[in-house]
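INTERNAL AUDIT FORM
Audit reference: QA-55
Scope: verify that the stored structure record matches its stored sequence.
Auditor: D.O.
Record contents follow.
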Amino acid sequence: MPSYQWRFSKQSVGFIETQSNGKQRALDANGRTLGFFDPQQGTTKEATQRTIAHGNLLASLIFDAN
């Protein structure tokens, strides 16, 4: 599935992967899971599965982690 990579000053800061079930997962540059987005529920959850927002805020998790 598509994977999107964010860079800051030519250094990777993280990725968003789309899984086969449509859910997305945000990872930092070291491959640690930061959170998930479930398009059916329309919620973003942190790595501990706690809902933190309605809508897709995975990019914010990546930038906040750096």
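Auditor finding: record pair retrieved intact. The CA atoms of residues 54 and 62 lie 17 Å apart.
Action required: none
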